[in-house]
What we know:
By secondary structure, the chain is of the alpha/beta class. It has helices at about 5-15, 20-55, 65-70, 75-80, 135-140, 195-205, 225-230, 255-270, 290-295, 345-350, 365-370, 385, 410, 415-420, and strands spanning about 105-110, 110-115, 180-190, 210-220, 235-240, 275-280, 285, 300, 305, 310-320, 320-325, 340-345, 380, 390. Bound molecules: uridine-5'-diphosphate-glucuronic acid (UGA) and manganese (II) ion (MN).
Amino acid sequence: MPASNCLEHLWSGMLSHEGTQRRKEGMVALFRTVVGVGMVSGLLVVLLWSEQQVGLKTPAHVHFHAHARGIPDGSPSAQAEDPEAHFQMSERLSVAQVSPVITHVTRRPNATTSNRRASSSLPPTAGHQTPPKPTSHVAASAVTSSSSSSSSSSPSSVNDSQKLVFTIDQTIPSSNSAMPKIYVITPTYRRPEQVAELTRLSQTLMLVPNLHWLVVEDAVAPTRRVLAFLDSCSVPHTYLLGTASRRYKGANKPRGVSNRNAGLKWLKVHAKEGVIYFADDDNTYDYRIFQEIRTTKQVSMFPVGLVTQLGVSSPVVSDGKLIGFYDGWIAGRKFPVDMAGFAVNVQFYLQRNAPLMPYNVGFEEDGFLKALKIKPEDIEPLADNCTKILVWHTRTVKTLPALKMPDTDKVTKTNLNHLKSQMVFQMPYGLS
Ligand code: UGA
Ligand code: MN
């Protein structure tokens, strides 16, 4: 018997009085309405909840755009109070521009260069670096930003929940081939923080289309952990060894030079155009710096935060022209800049006979830039005439290598055995 009929039966037994018949019918109708409304609103709650779950599964669209405007995720009040919320981001980058087909190039000893699809080694949850389907962009762009933006997005009336999502509405470029490629040369070396640094950097680079990452390790042989990291790294990359000779090891010796030079030699063979940028593995990069340097014609420069006691190293710009340098350590350098503070056009680099970086501690940048024979007045100031800091020379506190894990069953027969392979232990250099 249906539940309502059952109730009707029950009621009719209880309400024997003839005059209460109409009241009875009224109550049954009311009961049906209440049940109906309850079911519909329950359904709505379930639908809204599942939509939120889908939203959370697309961090590229929700979290990325929120962060891009300095807005903590999902907090409308924080958005209203945060002065950064009015900051206008570069209109040229959106997740929509992340290279749709991504090729890895990993070079290893005893292995020929291999090309792989980015998605092949990614777990299904690895998210937005999987070549995005056009439909997902359409869905993201459909919710238009309600804040003012320098992009072509047209503000539209949106309800309160939609205000949490900021999307730059723009045409998806059919191909990135027109965009100069950015070659990022990153020196790295074995230490406990190495994979953590590379992870952090890679996840910034994932936001940049048409970029090739040269991960150059200063080691006698590739570090297993780094190769494993690159196996699941969706940024197009090449791994190279750039071993520093023993005489360049130790205190007051240049760091990362052998690596950068190995990267430059690779570029000389493999690149004809594009832009070169030296990105140490421990610095902090706003993804917009890569959009800035992409237009470099010869040599571009821009401020770097947290350098020396002055807190910043920057070209001094007046009327759009570079007229000097602000840096805590001038030391007679013609170009007193940080390694992270300039980019070089590949064609220009090749025309200038592809110089390498000198092993001259403190003068690596200056020596390299002087070898390019660029006049200071020809340098292209970026980041809105060097008014914005989009890269910081950060340092990570050094962690001691871990104590060795015992070879007991508790390690070898549990998850610890897997973690073991991802750690740096106290043992002689190159043996882990
Ligand atoms: C500063 C400059 O920013 C570097 O560009 C410059 O190479 C270095 O000083 C120097 O002249 O010695 P800093 O932050 O002090 O950099 O140095 P690190 O971050 O320790 O090293 C710079 C890069 O070289 C990093 O990417 C690091 O991973 C790599 N490195 C460091 C090596 O490849 N091998 C090493 O033995 C040490
Ligand atoms: Mn550093």
